[in-house]
Automatic annotation (TrEMBL):
It comes from Bowmanella dokdonensis. Residues 131-326 form the HD-GYP domain. Gene3D superfamilies: Hypothetical protein af1432 (1.10.3210.10). GO terms for molecular function: phosphoric diester hydrolase activity. InterPro entries: DUF3391, HD/PDEase_dom, HD_GYP_dom, HDIG_dom. PANTHER family: CYCLIC DI-GMP PHOSPHODIESTERASE PA4108, CYCLIC DI-GMP PHOSPHODIESTERASE PA4108-RELATED. It comes from the Bacteria. Coiled coil: none annotated. This is HD-GYP domain-containing protein.
Amino acid sequence: MLKTIGIDELEPGMYVDSIARQTGKIKIRSQGRVSSQTMIHKLKEQGILALVIDAGKQLPAEPIPVEHYSSEPASVSRLSGKRVSFDAEIERAKALYAQGKALQKKLFNGVKRGLPLDLAIPAEFSNKLVESLDRHPDALLCLTRIRQKDSYLLEHSLNVSILLAHFAKQLGLPSHQVSELTLAGFLHDIGKIQIADAILHKPGRLTDEEMQIMRGHVSEGVQALEMTGLPGDLIRTVAEHHERLDGGGYPKGVGSEDISLYGRMVAIVDTYDAITADRCYKAGQPAQTAHKILLKASPREYDQVLVQKFIRCMGIYPVGSLVRLSNSQVAMVCEQCEDNPLKPRVKVFFSLKANHYLPPRDIALSESDNSLKIDQAVTAGELGLDFNRFFDQAIAV
């Protein structure tokens, strides 16, 4: 739906179709979305007075303007492809992650109400996820580990999207395939909104009848996406995310020769995120547990080569996971060390001996003069820590 607005009404997230009124002769090269307040200021400076926007393509507003968190405007780093520091990207990534959850909720509600899906918005949002990973992958990867028990349905698809993008980039896939996989991950569980909450969130084992209903979410999702004009390869990816190489998956029970590369990849990432997620009825498991489960089920259910490559790209201690150090302090993994994967860069924040939080402190475990080492991976739940709150207040600032 096209609508003419004044420049003072323009907000980040709006989709500009054309210029309606101006004092100069500037021309917009192509239609596009307004990414930041910085872009709006530039349009004002160049004499733009009114614009035609497409209200149907507007993204949910970002909770916090991204330029508040970096000395460099978002548009500059995106256009230049410049890599920024973790600290420069983390707040921007937080705003993007919150935006993704809001968009997921909007999509789920639309499917629930039987409304047609406009995939232009999630497609562009998926590209924004890839851009953040380009600027600094560890920021968004870190956020996939900061879970809310009551937001699993929204967070899971978003996390699968982020992890798939990272996996695809590490495999060296072309940029258009990275974008396709990111979007497929974002949409892969859209059919779950049609499953009754009593089944979707049941704390115990599902009955055979309930399991049959649960498995129907794949077909529900495929049916919803088929009406959008989404490319067939991406619909196939959604259709295959629960298929297994031995034919024991669903909904069709196809074997290895009939499962695509995308389908093999999304199956691995979907399982990994489900195992590590906190839910209302179970605590998430450490990444190392997920790795072991995937390896044990390979090559029977999962592509063994891809599982090994996925574990390698995530790291033995994935970014955002918690570890106990040899001095009885707890730290969050911030960055991998390619030369020594057992000694990543960490941020110490809690003392188990003193049983209290510490001022966050970065430590590069790989430095030669550092005698600290990781004793084991841990979870916030088993330690009784409210890590999400502490992360927001003291780490991601």
